[in-house]
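Appendix B. Chain record.
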Amino acid sequence: MAKIVTGKVYSAFADGLNGEPVVIEVSITPGLPSFDIIGLCDASIRESKGRILTAIKKSGFGIPKGHITVSISPSFIKKTGSGFDLPIAIGVLMTSGLIPGLDSLRIFASGELALNGEVHGTPGAVMRISSIKRSGYDACFIPCEERDSAACCGQECIFVSDLRSVCGHISMYDFRSRIPTIPVFYEKDKEVLDFSVLKGQEKASRSVFLSACGWHNILLIGSSGSGKTTAARIIQGLMPSLDQRELKDVFMLNNSIGLESAISAASYDRPFRTVTPSLNLTGLIGSANGFKPGEISLANHGVLFVDELCEYNTRFIDMMRIPMEDRYVELKKGGKEMRFPSDFLFVGATNPCRCGLWLEKPSKCTCSKSVRDGYLTKISGPFSDRLDIVTEMYQVDAAGLKESVSSVNERKSRELRSKVKTCWEIQRERYKNTDKPYALNGSFDSENLSEVLRADSKVIDYASKAASVGGYSVRSFKRLLKVGRTIADIEERRDMKESDIAEAMSYRFRSKL
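Structure tokens predicted for this chain:
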């Protein structure tokens, strides 16, 4: 069996949301047995030597004699992850002549080896597989666990479970591959809080519904126990499941940090990420070390629920401003930059004051005036401009308390989810020929906003006068129009009316604040 002097195998590693292709060269020369891996690799790659040699032996092959040198290039890029195990093992076996191979073969492989030779998937599969499209390969070997990742990329692959099966494909030149399909799960009733549990909060109920219908950022202000967290969780249940475009985006982000490796029925649920005051800025925005997404990116196409908003410092709150507006966040380090999506629905909740009772009637607030006045000032004016809806929530009355412990068989969320879906279809039909074809009202912007939203001069005059009296900024004024447009969409009206603007204004007023 002829030996290849130097074997070459191709692979890739995940760098943020990008897949960086690499070339793995293997050379075996006479000398004392040794195994060196070079090419600016991290510890997880350098430590793979023991796994690889043991997996080769357990798969029924001998250990090559001599000095094994593995070079992973380009050598000026730092490489991470344990997905190089399989391609290195293939290179060693082909170079040593233990399996036949040709210099002309272009083989792509990725996967971590267990000591018994099994091949396992690793985080970042979607990014690695996406890099395959850039070059033509004779064969692409991917772990069976990464089948759904390949489906997201639409990439032909050969799915393998162990090293021995890979060697069998190469020995017989059997490179038949296929493109897997994304599993489809039909939408069913979601196991979430039903809309009917929100008792005695008519304004908040309407606000939550509007927020879901138009992708409008919302802030809920109320005393402890008034139902703010319940209202936030209800929003997720009102929104339709992810479509396949959105599923790929969400799956890729989760896959990049190892949260998801297979698509299930639960994968189609929109993300609901809860942020608490214990979270630091890196956890919120993301880490430039290794370019890892933060909570605002993991909430992409879903809800970012920020509880106890005024318990954060002002810098933390204001760091969300740009991602809320631009729908992406940029991380930079060492001359490199990575852009992560952040098209999330912001849902905030806060008490009106330190003791939380300032909105109740008669007021039971125990805070001093200075404490009370300073509590909500943590929410800056620029951040407030990015909120579409602000609504107050009060402790429920006796009738509401009675209803809260009564048995109900209502399934309002199912009915309202259908209305939300209709609203989304109306909005995407409206914006399909713009530069934001997938936008909803809350995330859409345009120079000719009044024309796109179908607000005539009478409506615009009414809105502009009201906004001028209220001291609205240009950004707040645009958001007022977009909330008005959503109200019209709920009623399936082609044109906006003054009454839509009047209702939208009621969600910008903060009672007693």
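Further analysis of this model is presented in Appendix C.
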